[in-house]
Amino acid sequence: MSTTVSRPANGVARFVAYDRNPVRIGNPEDGTAISVRAETFVEEYASIAIKEFVEKSNGDGFDTVYVKFDATSTGAQGMKHDFGASAEPGGALAARLRKAFETSTPVYVAIETRRRKHVENKRDEPIDPRTPIHALRGASGESLSGQPQATKANCVKVIVAAGSVDDHADTAIASDKDLRSDISEWTQLRGNKLGDLPPEGWRCLVADGKRTGGITTSGPKGGATDVDAIAEAIAGRIAGAKGAPARSGQPAASVVRGRPGLVAEAKAWESLNSDGRPNMGSYLAAKLRATHQSAVYLFQDALTAVEESEQPELTEEKSLEHVWQLTELLLWLADQVQKSVVGAINRNEASHKEAGQWVQQVIQTRYPYAIEHITDDEARRAWSLAVGKAATEDFSRTQRMMATYLGIDLGPADSPVPQRAQPQAQQPGENTTEQPQNQGDAPAPAQQQPTSQQHPEQEQQRPRPLTAGEDPDAVTAWKNLAEACGMGEYIDDLRFILKATFKVPTGVLGEIEASAFTRQVAQWATDPMAFRQQAGQAFNSDPENRKAS
User: Fold this and answer.
1) Helix 283-304, helix 316-342: angle, nearest 10
2) DSSP letter string over 314-358?
3) In DSSP terms, which residues pair with 83 in a beta bridge?
4) Residues 50, 67: contact at Cβ < 8 Å?
5) Partners of 65 in the beta sheet?
6) What DSSP string describes 451-496?
7) Gyration radius of the chain over CA positions
8) In 3-state terms, the chain is what percent helix, strand and coil (to 5)?
9) For each of the chain's 549 residues, which pLDDT tens digit applies?
């Protein structure tokens, strides 16, 4: 039985996984028989306390375990209402839960919500595996919030894993009979909020050009038609329901699939094609897509951090609109950070990407996007000002550190730009005609640069420091750490924690200064398993591994 490879990065993870055992049904695409894995909904809690542990029996040989959890013990914002789930009796999992209850020790817990069997005509009739699990839970749109009555009628909640908060090796797993999904897939599925990001080697089922629930193998079936149908389904979800009004400020237009001989698509670094229209294959287009992806994650994480009863009622249209406006707000913040430190706004420059990365880091480490920022204009305004100020200070400090290293006198800081009221981020669903990146009117937090005396020795450029890749001792220490945490064969996957820790582009040793690298590796080596957990979180959180919604 496989055990969890990593734990959720933010304390709580909610995502769609899939039954390990496929069922044979008629293919909705062409009517032939096909194997389908049905959806199941997984909730993971990195640390949670148990309030009640009850073993029940009906006297007919049917036993079960019921566990009630203390929601506030998770530390997740907005989780106030206790909840429960059942577990298989008599095994290691039940024993681990009982031990945690008797010793009042928090545990890591994973719970599956999966479809019931409906009793019809005196037969157990499983619900169609093509029915999405969110539909059975009564959830809709971008929100993962379900309806208790719908969930109770269509689903059962079963505990499938429990273990020590600090020791991942101490994890008890439900039996093959009681566990539905494949735990080894969970690492790549934690971003699968809606069920449209199946694991590698599998694809979503599509009927009448729309995605249904369930997945099947990604082998060729139907050729190009299959791919086109999936693309249409995804495009339909992003654009909204058929016939929905175009976003304000953007004229509705039919899709142009290409005009051979008339338009030559420009190079990736060029923002315009030969006809003067935007180059949709440019770095600028990729930046907008990546920023939108970040906005999706911020929005989803804010919702899933609170109990379903605490989540606002948002239609799919309002949720999508809020994500787009959050995208614009993130771009606007990067604009202001770049302008304050570099002196001008240019989204095609690499410095704009770095400014945006500092914005993201501040959000992830100091000022998370929370539920009140979705519903409260004033709270969102205060949040954006705090994020912009902190990111500007961090980016400025980075510039000062670089100047010191390079022996450059930056001179006195420019006069601060007067602060003005930030453009109000729109509420979900509101029509907007002005976007928050009005660059000339945007506040730019004051850049503070230290003055220094220019020393004669600084006029001679300092030698380039040794990188970790050039230091045999550093390379050996890195390999030893990888072996110690059981990642020796997968050492390349550890580059993501190097990217996150040292803020380098790709995480290779040649990008990192040797002495700083050696100090950090020595610190990680004191607890290899904690390092492995951090590395797993960095891998899951990196944009390279987080698929777009």
Assistant:
1) 120
2) --HHHHHHHHHHHHHHHHHHHHHHHHHHHSS--TTSHHHHHHHHH
3) 69
4) yes
5) 55, 87
6) -----GGGGSPPPPPPBGGG-HHHHHHHHHHHHHTT-GGGGGGGHH
7) 26
8) 40, 20, 40
9) 455 556 776 678 889 999 998 888 766 555 667 888 999 999 999 899 999 999 877 665 567 899 999 988 887 766 778 889 999 888 899 999 999 999 999 999 999 999 887 644 444 566 888 889 998 888 876 567 777 778 888 889 999 999 988 888 888 999 888 899 998 889 888 888 888 888 888 888 887 777 888 998 875 443 333 444 444 444 444 444 333 333 333 333 333 334 444 456 777 777 887 677 888 888 888 889 889 988 988 888 888 888 877 888 888 888 888 999 999 999 999 999 999 998 888 888 889 989 999 999 999 888 999 988 988 888 888 999 999 999 999 999 999 898 888 888 776 544 333 343 333 334 333 433 333 443 333 443 333 333 434 443 444 444 567 888 878 888 889 989 998 888 888 888 898 999 899 988 888 888 898 888 998 999 899 888 889 989 988 888 887 775 433
Torsion sign across C-alpha atoms 328, 140, 10, 424: positive
Phi, psi of 124 (to 5 degrees): -80, 110
What is the torsional sign of CA 324, 329, 334, 335? positive
Amino acid at the residue 162: A
Do the beta carbons of residue 214 and residue 240 sit within 8 Å?
A: no
Rounded (5°) CA angle 158-88-128: 45
- Angstrom distance (rounded) from CA 7 to CA 186: 9
* Whether 324 contacts 355, CB under 8 Å: no
> 236-268 in b/e burial notation, b at 16+ Cβ within 10 A?
ebeeeeeeeeebeeeeeeeeeeeeeeeeeebee
- Non-local (6+) Cβ contacts of 276 within 8 A are none
* Residue 160: strand, helix, or coil: strand
Contact 106, 277 (CB under 8 A): no
Residues, the chain: 549
Residue 39's H or E segment, with its range, is strand 39-57
Three-state SS for 231? Answer: helix
Whether the model clears a pTM of 0.85, i.e. scores above it, the answer is no
Per residue, the 3-state secondary structure of 58-124, as one string, reads CCCCCEEEEEEEEHHHHCCCCCCCCEEEEECCCCHHHHHHHHHHHCCCCEEEEEEEEECEEEECCEE
Eight-state DSSP code of residue 425: P
CA distance 220 to 174: 34
CA angle 118, 23, 208 (to 5 degrees): 90
CA distance 482 to 334: 35
